[in-house]
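User: My notes are a mess, but here's the protein and zinc ion's SMILES. Can you give me a structure?
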Amino acid sequence: MRLADSILTQVHTGHRKLTERTWSKGSGDRRTRTWPEAAEKSQLRGVTSVCNICGWRGRGFEGVKHSESALCPVCGSISRDRFLYWCWTQRTAYDPRAAVLETSPRMGQLYRDRMAERVDYTASDYDESAHKAVIKLDLQDMALPDASVDVVLTPHVLEHVPDTGRALSELFRVLKPGGHVFLQIPLPQARTMVPTEPEYHGDWTLVYFRFGWDLADVIRSHGFACDTLVTSELRDAAAHGHCWVHDGPDCDVDDLVAGADPAAMTVIADAAQAERHGFQPGYQFVTFDLHKPR
Ligand SMILES: [Zn+2]
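Assistant: No problem, the inputs look usable. Here's the predicted complex:
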């Protein structure tokens, strides 16, 4: 083995051992600590991409720049998972005792185990699920006590719920004062619409609503404060009229950007952060931060 390779192997082993020690010690903000599994598979040179969920570092995510792609090879996150997680870690202080509910997480058991080491974590699903440690939950009728949850992470679920208002009322009820809901949905055009033909997502769940920017006002009408979190790329596009080319009926990007109000957006990731963590293209990354007043 060449000397340079040998040194690199030693550095890699040292990095992995240090990560294991740091993880098991459990100090600091564990939401941003690297998993030992990620240290094992990370590159140390020429890194362009970093997973903000598991800490994996490498030369590009797998797949293309799309909210449903750019896969992390360790935790299995796609880019919209990482954006939701980013919003949570940027907008709330770390509390290892925080009761965090995630509705229908895409990622599997390793992710759920690591989350349970980071916070008081519960995953829920609407359907009976094969995963262990999952509770069955209907957002419109949540079997949880009042003011019992600190944070709800809800990726791409609300568009599949028939009664938006009931779901928002239930989220408000179960949230503790001062708590947050990070609500992520696809935003295919500027104003909320009911699909004109039956529309399904990949897992064959029916879409009841194609939400638009006006969802923020609906959220506020249920008692929440609400911020619309975006990347700087999307805010700048809304301010200066730049637009993307998007083929296909799933998104009318011209309408989405033309109907956006840059003053109503809160930038949560700059261009460098979006590039590093794969929050691109900008128009596919919108998350609402619902905050229950104290
Ligand atoms: Zn990852």
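DSSP finds nine helices and ten strands in the chain.
User: Great, I'll file this with my notes.
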